[in-house]
Design goal:
Layout: E1 6-8, E2 16-18, E3 22-33, E4 45-50, E5 60-66, E6 79-84, E7 93-98, H1 105-111, E8 117-126, E9 129-133, E10 144-146, E11 151-161
Parallel strand pairs: 3-5
Antiparallel strand pairs: 1-2, 3-4, 5-6, 6-11, 7-8, 7-11, 8-9, 9-10
């Protein structure tokens, strides 16, 4: 409060608020935390995010649909902040578009993928292939193992915005 970073409303439960300026960040639809799904691709709404909440300024938000990232504390219904990027370091969580046009039926069946779409996964590279790994020990989802030409990285995960009921 002394440094003008928060304001405290006396006598009010949970009366602390950030004093920093906020940016309006667009929500572009859903991202699968599971099988890839088509994202809306249009602005559903905007959300006010305080400046400095994340190390980098997010370019957009996506609403999580699924439970494959719960061990990373990313839950269904959360909004994930994303920085546009076509590259990622191994171990980073990414928004990846899975491209099925060139996949054989056997490759699609092996990975359990039925259509194009975007998904939220932890990425790594093994033997020249991308591994898109879920983080849910309770469900033990198999990773997607895909050739690099079957995956397009759309952005890197910066953090979660969770609605408080």
């Amino acid at each position: 409060e002394r440094h003008n970073l928060i304001t405290v409303r006396k006598g009010v439960s949970r009366g602390t608020r950030a004093s920093r300026a906020a940016n309006e960040i667009p929500v572009y639809g859903k991202v699968a935390a599971g099988m890839p799904i088509e994202s809306g691709g249009y602005v559903m709404k905007t959300v006010s995010i305080p400046s400095g909440l994340f190390r980098k300024q997010p370019d957009y938000l996506l609403q999580v649909d699924g439970d494959s990232m719960v061990d990373e504390l990313i839950f269904e219904g959360d909004l994930v902040a994303v920085k546009r990027s076509q590259i990622a370091d191994p171990g980073e969580i990414v928004v990846a578009q899975v491209l099925t046009e060139e996949m054989s039926k056997a490759e699609m069946i092996r990975n359990g993928i039925s259509s194009n779409g975007i998904t939220l996964k932890k990425i790594s590279v093994h033997l020249g292939q991308f591994r898109l790994k879920s983080c849910n020990r309770a469900r033990n989802y198999a990773p997607f193992v895909l050739n690099p030409d079957r995956v397009k990285i759309e952005g890197t995960f910066l953090g979660v915005v969770r609605a408080v009921p």
